[in-house]
Amino acid sequence: MKFAVIGGTGLIGSQVVRVLNAAGHEAVPHSQSTGVDVISGQGLDEAVARADVVVNLTNSPTFDEASPAFFQTSMENLLTAAQKGGIGHFVILSIVGADQVPELDYYRAKVLQENILAAGPIPYSIVRATQFMEFIDAVLSWTTDGDTVRLPATPIQPIASKDVANAVAEVAAGAPLNGIHNIAGPEIFPLDELGRTTLSHKGDNRTVVTDPTAGMFAVVKGDVLTDTQAHLAPTRYTDWLA
Ligand SMILES: NC(=O)c1ccc[n+]([C@@H]2O[C@H](COP(=O)([O-])OP(=O)(O)OC[C@H]3O[C@@H](n4cnc5c(N)ncnc54)[C@H](OP(=O)(O)O)[C@@H]3O)[C@@H](O)[C@H]2O)c1
């Protein structure tokens, strides 16, 4: 099958391209660096013209109040191009529990992206993943002040990007779900504990202080970012760190 992987040079996109091509498919990466822009629409018609399936793995440049506009405009442009190109399956990657955290602009933006896809004319699949293991360092940096990192005890179920890419590729190569497929890491940790494990593994001298008001995950209620019923990926966090 032929896949147009939009955002195919990013963390997940580049791995999805590799997995699909290794399985004998023809997957082509597209992004601003290859001359395709989902916001201006530049190059989109050509990018999807020869594809059977579009996999959209683009990301907003910011996680703030500008992110809903990014996902709205990009989805409208991509769906227009995909419809013109006769695309039979459109896949996006969203976040487990995104609809349960409307306080976060970025999570509202991901739900908006899902809703635009589901309301559109093209058979689709939504893969929802938990927080990427590769994302934890950034989470720690956001609430670092000197030698202290403040983190709430929000339950997090981190997943390796490699496992996300395998799952996205598998869904993309299958029949459209016209629904949501949740994937998650094999273990759940309170975020503060995840921070301590990460720092100690790296020999980082910063100290984690538990603070229920710190950072973006402070607004998350209960365990909505985890899903024990999801498809559980194999990679454990400490193995990934190693
Ligand atoms: N972080 C998490 O824990 C998490 C969890 C679940 C789901 N997700 C979702 O996973 C998806 C992929 O994330 P990622 O970490 O792989 O993203 P990433 O590494 O930041 O890659 C983003 C990709 O989008 C492309 N891009 C950005 N703006 C573009 C534009 N205007 N036109 C065309 N291409 C554009 C980038 O290419 P250029 O650099 O060339 O523009 C790059 O290929 C996101 O939608 C995110 O919401 C993330």
Automatic annotation (TrEMBL):
It holds the Pfam family NAD_binding_10. The keyword NADP applies. InterPro entries: NAD(P)-bd_dom, NAD(P)-bd_dom_sf, NmrA-like_oxidored. Transmembrane segments: none annotated. Keywords: NADP. Residues 7-172 form the NAD(P)-binding domain. This is LysR family transcriptional regulator.
